[in-house]
Amino acid sequence: MVSAQSQFKLKVSGEVSQPLELSLSDLVKMPRKEAKLKDKEGNVHVYTGVSVLDILAKAGVPSGKELHGENLSKYLLVQCTDGYQVLFSLAELDPSIADKNVIVADTIDGNPLLKEKGPLRIIAEGEKKPARSSYQVEALIVGHIKK
Prior knowledge:
- The chain has helices at 4-7, 24-29, 52-58, 90-93, and strands spanning 9-14, 20-23, 33-38, 44-51, 74-80, 85-89, 102-108, 111-112, 121-124, 137-144.
- By secondary structure, the protein is mostly beta strands.
- A hairpin with a 5-residue loop joins strand 3 and strand 4 (44-51).
């Protein structure tokens, strides 16, 4: 039996040098990172997944010393299967500029995400409102603001 989740691919596209389609098993093989997020009841949950930066690096997105000039106007658009979208600037994701922990999570408290919330979720640790910690992530699209 082949489930929809086993066929799932996270698409990474836009202004990247290497467009990607990552399966859940591809993501599990990448370096793992944790992020904490409070739920509506105030309970803290530990999510585990892959740093967004590691995924973007694999796609050839500029970071570190390359993040200057025109590259500072680049952004990451996260698209979810239900049509929800959230935006991050590449600068806010880069550790040379900001201390932001953003991961693409596939587990919560050591268990897979619930089917209706997964298979992947963006977790933006430390934000006062979890509005950008979105469910059912299906695509990461890099773009930039043009004059």
